[in-house]
Amino acid sequence: MRRCLAVGLDCYLCVLTAGLLARPYVDTASLPEAAALLAVPVLVLSFVNQVVLTAFLGAGAGKLIMGIRVVSLPDVRRPGPGPLVRRWLYGLAWLPLRPWYGLRTSGQRDEAGCPLVRTCEEGVSYADPLGLRQVRRGDLVAYRRALTEGRAAAARGLY
What we know:
The protein is mostly helical.
């Protein structure tokens, strides 16, 4: 649920900011110019949020507000710019087509009897195809603390 709210918050903040930036110019522009005035800032702000902020802070604005961090697997570190750009492009290409795939596969089930299209709450895997994962900040802190304590105990010969 947190991931869905973070994505919705990211979209809302991006569209709101782009609308506020383009508002003074939309009244005097023709329809194609007005569409470009809105689309270009949305894409730029989306890139800044999803790639630049995540590279520097570990999450975009919505994820920071919801307490979620983006990490790369298997090292559980902040992802580099390459995977983040590929993730952003994948999101731009896949998300607009999701409703189409949902309509095409509604009612269909896989071998295990599970629906082929899962909603955000039903999704089992939180990893995306590029090996990045969204985790709660508290879980990440606890994991890193346990990892550090385990290494310290191993160095002392307790394990």
